[in-house]
Structure formats: structure tokens, C-alpha cells
Amino acid sequence: MTNLSDSNLSDFCLKLPKIEAHAHINGSLSPSTMRALVARKVDVNPELAAFEIPDSLNCIDDFFSLFKFIYQLTDDEASVTFATQKVIEEFAADGVRYLELRTTPRANADKGMTKHSYLQAVIQAIEQQQQANMKTRLIISIDRRNTLEEAQETVDLALHFQQCSNVVVGVDLCGDVMKGSFLALKPAFERARQQGGFKLTLHFNEVAENIPEAPELLSIRPDRLGHATLLDDYSRTTVYQQAIPVEICMTSNVFSKTVATYEDHHVKQLLEEDHPFILCTDDKGVFGSDLSNEYVLAAKTFGLDRHQLFEASFKSIDYVFADQETKDQLKADWLAWKKDNQDLFVA
Ligand code: IMP
Ligand code: ZN
């Protein structure tokens, strides 16, 4: 049962203006969006109705089958647009004021969807769904299992859409942590930065098997790192010396079992060292935790008070893939919110 201070804290974290910088579109579909997509598709694919959409996950195996199911729901452009719009609406309703979504372009020959038309559907949804109170930008993901040719094709798409839209701001390395090699894909990331001026973020050291390739990932001087769960001596020194901001996804890490408990989460060290980090969700639909809940968890686990939560959110502005003018505007908005909501800082 939630007590009064719990609900006050949840209310504060919901109202707090927040930055979301690590959210995979397909992992961010809420159960209600999944149900709406099933309803749109059930006539042509009745099997979809049989899948039990969980309101929360009970075990690790759930999320692999859930991703497989989600990819059946977002297998054509109209569904991709619908899903992206819903994800944007939900982040805005959760108090996010600046959102960087990310997604891996996916083709589906059966429905005539190409990687190009997939991205076009996402970008159109973002452009149509710009909220009065929230800017949305896109990071394009390159899957670790890609060949260099596929990765370069993704960079070509990023460069193409840069010609007609200001939505795409960065490129990400994601996917199964046990597969692929960054070394093989590195030229694509270098070209994304050189030709497009794109910022780079890499899923980094999620499991022990990733540690040998860490120097290679760091050699590209990433602008941010996803997770950075395990810091061996070399990684720790480099990440700290270069003050590389870390995208922190507590619930995702605990559910994926890359971190044993919330109390053991490595964000504790970052807090102690005053190292840059951004609290994020990763896959809010799959792991059942939205961004305001991630702030609640950080507060409860590490005893952060409301001023510290505001500071964490405020500092995150410096680490987003936006120009200085946007960052200055966001900072002004945050400070105005704090001034208008002084009463919320009294627990
Ligand atoms: P999509 O790129 O929009 O299709 O988002 C889902 C994809 O994000 C998954 O298939 C994974 O490849 C990737 N993903 C989600 N969470 C993680 C993570 O924690 N580590 C690495 N990749 C992830
Ligand atoms: Zn991720």
C-alpha cells in the first residue's frame, strides 16, 4: 500500500520537468498502445489476439516474447506512425519536456515496408506530434549484428533525412550485447559524425563479455554512453577523465539482470563522484516503468531529496543532443517551473 509520502513523491516526480534521452520506440509501447494495435490488425492476423499483454513483467523470459510480439504490431508504416505518436503523447503526459527517441530502421517485405519508409513514418509522426510543452528528436540505432554495409546504409538514411528535417540528431549502437563487433561497424559511426555532424551514443559494457571491446568503443570518443554498467579500470579512467555522460536505466538493468538490485545500481557511484548522468527508461513498455517512476526509484533507493531530483533533471539538459539555444531555453523553463512550484519542494 502506498503511504502519503510515497504518493507525494510520485506526484512530485510526475510534475518535475524531465529529460528522456534513452528510449527505444518499440520497447516504449504501453500495454494500451499494444492493445490498440492488436485491434487494428486482428482481422488479418487473428493469432495476435491470443497473446497475453502483461501489465508488468514477471520474469526475464517475458520480454523476449514481448519484443517478438511488438514487432508483429509495428510491421507496417501506419502502425509505426501510430505507435510513435502514442509513445510521444505518453512521455509528454509523464512530464517529459525534451525527448530523444531512438529506433532501429526495420524492413518488412510482406507489407512493402523498407528501412527508408520505416524511418519516414517515424519522422513524420515526430513532426506531426510536436507538443507545446515537449520537443522530440530522433537517434537512429545501428544494431550490433549489422554488417558494415548495413550500418552504412543506416548512416545514408540519417544523412538523407537530415536534408529535409531537423529531427535526427544522433546515431546509437544497440542490440544483443553478446553479438557482433563494434570494430567492424566503427567506420559507419565515424562517417555519421564527420558527414552529418551527428552525436554518437553507444550501449556500453552491459555485461562482462563487452569489456574487451570497451577501449575500441571509447576510442571514438562517444558523446554519451548507454548503461556503462561495468567499469573496468581502463573504462572507469577514460569515462571519468572525459566526463562522458551516462544514460542510466535502473529498472531495465534490474529486469535484465545486469544489475542485481536497485541498491547495487552503479548510478550510486556516479552520484558520489558527481559524474554526469541522465535518468532514462530504455523500454518503458517492456519493463513497465515510466520516467517519473525511475525518479521515484532513484529517490527512494539513494535517499535523494526533491532539490537533488531537480538538480539531476536540470543537469541532464547539458547532455542532450541539442544546440545551445535549445539547452538555454530548457534551462530557463526548468528554473521558471521551480520558481512557480516552491511549495512542492517541502516534503
Ligand atoms: P527499436 O530499435 O525501436 O526496434 O527498439 C527495440 C530494440 O532496442 C530491441 O530490439 C533491441 O535491439 C534494442 N534494445 C532495447 N533495450 C536494449 C538494451 O538494454 N541493450 C541493447 N539493446 C536494447
Ligand atoms: Zn537501450
TrEMBL record:
Family: Belongs to the metallo-dependent hydrolases superfamily. Adenosine and AMP deaminases family.
GO terms for biological process, alphabetical: adenosine catabolic process; inosine biosynthetic process; nucleotide metabolic process
Gene3D superfamilies from the UniProt entry: Metal-dependent hydrolases
Needed co-factor(s): Zn(2+)
Adenosine deaminase domain location: 17-331
Record's keyword terms, sorted: Hydrolase, Metal-binding, Nucleotide metabolism, Zinc
Gene encoding the protein: ABSGL_10918.1 scaffold 12033
InterPro entries cross-referenced by the UniProt entry: A_deaminase_dom (IPR001365), Ado/ade_deaminase (IPR006330), Metal_Hydrolase (IPR032466)
GO molecular function: adenosine deaminase activity; metal ion binding
Catalytic activity as recorded in UniProt: N(6)-methyl-AMP + H2O + H(+) = IMP + methylamine
Naturally occurring in which organism (per UniProt): Absidia glauca (Pin mould)
This protein's name: Adenosine deaminase domain-containing protein
Pfam families named in the record: A_deaminase
Quaternary structure, from the entry: Monomer.
